[in-house]
Amino acid sequence: MPRRHGKKYLEALKKIDRQRLYTPEEAIRLLKETSFTTFDPTVEVHLRLGIDPRHADQTIRSTVSLPHGTGKTVRVLVFAQGEAAQAAREAGADFVGADDLIARIDKENFFDFDIAIATPDMMGKVGRLGRKLGPRGLMPNPKSGTVVQLDDLPRAIREVRGGRVEFRNDKTGLLHVAVGKLSFSEQQIYENIAALMEAVKAARPSAAKGTYIKSVTFTSTMSPGIRVDPSAAQAMKPAV
Q1: What is the full DSSP assignment across 12-57?
Q2: What is the pLDDT of residues 162-201, one digit of tens each?
Q3: d(C-alpha 233, C-alpha 228), whole Å
Q4: CA-based nearest residue to 42, from 56, 31, 55
Q5: Taking the CB of residue 191, how many other CB atoms lie within 10 A of it?
Q6: For the chain, which domains are there?
Q7: Is 220:44 a contact under the CB 8 Å cutoff?
Q8: Distance from C-alpha of 219 to C-alpha of 35, rounded to nearest angstrom
Q9: pLDDT tens for each residue of 67-121
Q10: In angstroms, how far is CA 28 from the centroid of its own chain?
Q11: pTM of the prediction?
Q12: What are the DSSP calls for the chain, one per residue?
């Protein structure tokens, strides 16, 4: 059954030329013009990639530090003990623990956090939570920069609080990444998206052949998507 949209959505849709590929600047301007929510919506970038996600050597999983953050409070949980636990608390982690925290997640289904970080010595125990943390995208992983040594722990916590986000393709080869709030200035949204595009290009698998970024769409919560010229999106310049 086809999805039915409300009057405000349809009015917003009239402002968008569905046959046109917009420049990033035009698309960001349109995002602000077509938003009709009473709350501050999240800005998202959706990319269709020329990869075959059935092959492990063509999957994408990486991180990007958004220069202007995500616009939301990030709750950080750290699996650590001893000196590392103390360093995590001093760096501002919201939840810090070892066996006690693992038991709380396992037995009480505690998931009131956005990012989980672990020191390498904890991963043998944290691994038992894979079936619970994995499907929620919360399992610490070296590739996403969430398994870190003691010396790197304060920096990792600051980065995830300040706007470092993980991105990974879904099973259809699409990337969906939140890049901030619509209340950000157009320049801030541009610079966050530019940082993402640079990170996605850098993450291109060597096994991927042909056109890598096939389509680019900008959207905000509940609003119509705006198609962007992939070449123009890839040419975006991050903030220096």
Answers
A1: HHTTS-TT--B-HHHHHHHHHHH---SS-PEEEEEEEES--TTSGG
A2: 888 889 999 999 999 999 999 999 999 999 999 999 999 9
A3: 7
A4: 31
A5: 22
A6: 7-70+164-234 (3.30.190.20), 76-162 (3.40.50.790)
A7: yes
A8: 9
A9: 999 998 889 999 999 999 999 999 999 999 999 999 999 999 999 999 999 999 9
A10: 18
A11: 0.78
A12: -PPP--HHHHHHHTTS-TT--B-HHHHHHHHHHH---SS-PEEEEEEEES--TTSGGG--EEEEE-TT--SS---EEEE--THHHHHHHHTT-SEEESHHHHHHHHHH-----SEEEE-GGGHHHHGGGHHHHGGGT-S--GGGT-B--GGGHHHHHHHHHHTEEEEE--TTSEEEEEEEETTS-HHHHHHHHHHHHHHHHHT--TT--S-SEEEEEEEETTSPPEEE-HHHHHT-----
Structure tokens given for 33 = 């013009």
Length of the chain: 240
